[in-house]
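Hello, quick one for you while I still have it in my head. My current little project is about how a certain protein chain folds up. You're getting the sequence in one-letter code plus the fold written as tokens. Would you mind checking whether the tokens look sensible for this chain? Here's the protein in full, and shout if anything looks odd to you:
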Amino acid sequence: METIILFGVLEGLIMFLLIILKRRKSVSDYWLSAFFLIFSLNTFMSYLEIYNRTHGFPFSQAFFISTPLLFLHWPLIWLYVKSLTDQHFYFKPLYWLHFLPFVLCVTLFSIGYYIKSPAYKIEIIESESFKNQWDYPVVIIAMALSSLVYFSWSAILVAQYKNRIKGYFSETSKYDLAWLRTLMIASAIIYTIIYLTFVVDLAIPLASFSWLHKTSFLLGAVYLIVLGFFGHRQRNLFSDNKIGFQLLKPEPISEKTYSIDKKEDEFIHLLLNHMNEKKPFLTPEITLSALADELRITPEFLSGILNSKLGKNFFDFINHYRIEEFKTRCKAPENKNFTLIAIAYDCGFNSKATFNRVFKNATGMTPGAYAQI
């Protein structure tokens, strides 16, 4: 186990270096690299604590030194997600409050443990009597709640971001952060189970603190591998693309919004004619701004018409036409020798997964089933 934990230290340092040495770094890369550095330091401190317990306590100060750093993990992950999903992200002074639990934990442990004599610390570690003190359950419960809140909050940020980018892009698979949303939910579950195990252990002894400690950091090492692999590859939408449009929450649709004046009515006819005649949806990477330029209007006006008057975001609007084009082409005799995905690509789709998902959501059947009708 100790060897695997040391491997976790090495993992964190390697991921930190890989990200910090990237040629094109975004602000989200800095937050992710900070997480890996803290995780590596935290895991190394945990290793020292484990080594201390199993080798006669050679390091008199290596007691409970890894615990406070755990309160830095979740704010750093949240800041990473926030910087990926916020079009105008910057570090606000209010964000310093996210690090308050870490400061409080250091203060609490300084008074309760760090200033105590080595003999006292060795005694409570060997007997595990620290588990009977009031601060132990408080810290464990605080960690469980923090992990649940932060990871769930991050998952919500990713879900909201996904809805917003559908207002600008016709193909979102490169930027939708689906992997991160799933990871946040899974992490919230895994970390909460870990801390609940610690809490249950207070009332019903399950295992020694040493075993629980080692196991939690082993799971953390696995989590680090997954996050590092995908995080290193993740592009930042807002640093990699110039988006001259505010990706705000779409205007809600109500009866009142369906009231269309003469100017808007004329534009809607122009828009629909343009879609049918020019077929801009056949361009795989078409965006809201590109279509607005073709129509010589502002992206804001086009977005407002789509959301408030037609009841669709840009993603659904464009892919509706692509689906209808596919329905026509897949039935055409001249296309009988082409595969369905080849036809789909000709209709503007550039992702098989997106095509299958969008088509089934719109028609209730798979492309293959539709083609056989």
